[in-house]
Write a structure and sequence with these properties.
This protein has 10 helices and 10 strands. It is an alpha/beta fold. It has 3 domains: about 80 residues, Arc Repressor Mutant, subunit A (Orthogonal Bundle); about 100 residues, 3-Layer(aba) Sandwich (D-Maltodextrin-Binding Protein, domain 2); about 100 residues, Periplasmic binding protein-like II (D-Maltodextrin-Binding Protein, domain 2), CATH 3.40.190. Strands 3, 4, 5, 6, 7, 8, 9 and 10 form an 8-stranded mixed sheet that branches. Strands 1-2 form a two-stranded antiparallel ribbon. The chain starts with 6 loop residues before the first helix and ends with a helix.
Length: about 300
C-alpha cells in the first residue's frame, strides 16, 4: 500500500486554506503556529508540490494547494463519518442530527413534522439550519449537516435523495384582479400572466418556471422579492400576482391578507424530499425517517 499523508497534516492544510493565515489556522487546529507551519512543510515535502505562498501579511494557496485542500475536505468528512459510526455503535441512544432546510419549506413543514419526529425518534436531537438549496447541498457534501429537506427537482449528483410528497402551486392575486372570482386557473393561462417571484438563487423561482413551462420573460423582474412573506405583501398591495406552494397555503400563510388563493389545474407542483450522503453512518435511520414522513405527510 502506498504511503499517504497523515490526517493531521491534511487538517492543517484545510484550515490554512479556510483562513489564509497561519495564526488563525493554528488556533482552529489547537496547535502552535510553528507546529502547523512545520506540518505544512512536511506535507509539501511528502507530496513534492508547493501548497502555499507565504508572505509576512498573508498566505496565498497555490493552484495545487487549493485543489488538494478541496479534495481533502471530502476525505476528512468521510473520516468523521467513520468516527460517528463507531461512536454511534457505542452510544446508540445518543444521536445528534444536523438538518438543513430551505426557506420555502422550513416555516411551513417543520412545525408539522418536528413533533411527529420527536415522538417517533425520542433518542434523536435535531439541530436546524435554514439556507438556500445550493448552500445546503455544499454543507451536506462537506459534512457540516447530516441531511437536507429541500424541493425537487434539483441537481444533487452523488447524494441520496428520496421524495416525500408533492407540493402543488396555487395562484394568488388581489381581490380586484380580473381572475379573483375564478374557481380555478388553467396552467395554460399562466403563459400570458406576468408573475412576481422570488429573486435569483431561490429554487422556488426555477421550480415555478419549470413546472408551469414558463419562460423567464414571464417574471416581473422589477418586483422580485427576497421572501415569500414579502411576495404576498406585494400581492396584497395590488402590485401583481404570484404562485405559492400548497404547504404555505395549508399553514395559513395568507390568512388575514388581502389576497385570493385559486387552485391551478391541472396540478403543477414541485416535490419535497430528503437528501443525505450515501457514506453517512446513519443511512438506515434516514431511510426509516423517510418512510415515516411519507406516512404522516400531508398532515
Amino acid at each position: 500500500m502506498k504511503q499517504v499523508p497523515s490526517l493531521k497534516q491534511l487538517e492543517y492544510l484545510v484550515s490554512l486554506d479556510d483562513t489564509k493565515h497561519f495564526g488563525n489556522a493554528s488556533r482552529q487546529c489547537h496547535v502552535t503556529p510553528s507546529t502547523l507551519s512545520a506540518g505544512i512543510r512536511e506535507l509539501e515535502a511528502f507530496l513534492g508540490v508547493s501548497l502555499a505562498e507565504r508572505t509576512k501579511r498573508m498566505v496565498l494557496m497555490t493552484p495545487q494547494g487549493a485543489e488538494i485542500a478541496r479534495r481533502t475536505r471530502f476525505l476528512l468528512r468521510d473520516a468523521e463519518d467513520i468516527m460517528s459510526y463507531a461512536q454511534g455503535q457505542l452510544e446508540a441512544s445518543k444521536v445528534e442530527m444536523h438538518l438543513g432546510v430551505i426557506p420555502s419549506v422550513g416555516p411551513f413543514l417543520l412545525p408539522r413534522i418536528l413533533p411527529a419526529l420527536r415522538d417517533k425518534f425520542p433518542d434523536m436531537k435535531l439541530y436546524l439550519r435554514e439556507e438556500k438549496t445550493l448552500d445546503l447541498l455544499s454543507k451536506l457534501r462537506s459534512g457540516k449537516i447530516d441531511l437536507a429537506l429541500l424541493a425537487l427537482p434539483f441537481e444533487t449528483e452523488e447524494l441520496c435523495v428520496e421524495s416525500l410528497m408533492d407540493d402543488p402551486y396555487h395562484f394568488v392575486c388581489h381581490p380586484d384582479h380580473p381572475s379573483a372570482k375564478r374557481k380555478r386557473i388553467h396552467s395554460i393561462d399562466l403563459a400570458d400572466t406576468s408573475l412576481m417571484l422570488l429573486e435569483e438563487g431561490h429554487c422556488l423561482r426555477d421550480h415555478v418556471l419549470e413546472a408551469c413551462r414558463l419562460e423567464k420573460s414571464a417574471i416581473r423582474s422589477e418586483f422580485e422579492a427576497t421572501s415569500l412573506h414579502t411576495l404576498v405583501q406585494m400581492v396584497s398591495a395590488g402590485l401583481g400576482v404570484t404562485l405559492l406552494p400548497e404547504i404555505a397555503i395549508q399553514a395559513h400563510f395568507t390568512a388575514g391578507m388581502n389576497v385570493c388563493v385559486i387552485p391551478v389545474v391541472p396540478k403543477q407542483s414541485r416535490e419535497i424530499g430528503l437528501a443525505w450522503r450515501s457514506t453517512s453512518p446513519y443511512v438506515d435511520r434516514f431511510v426509516s425517517m423517510t418512510d415515516f414522513l411519507r406516512d404522516v405527510l400531508p398532515l
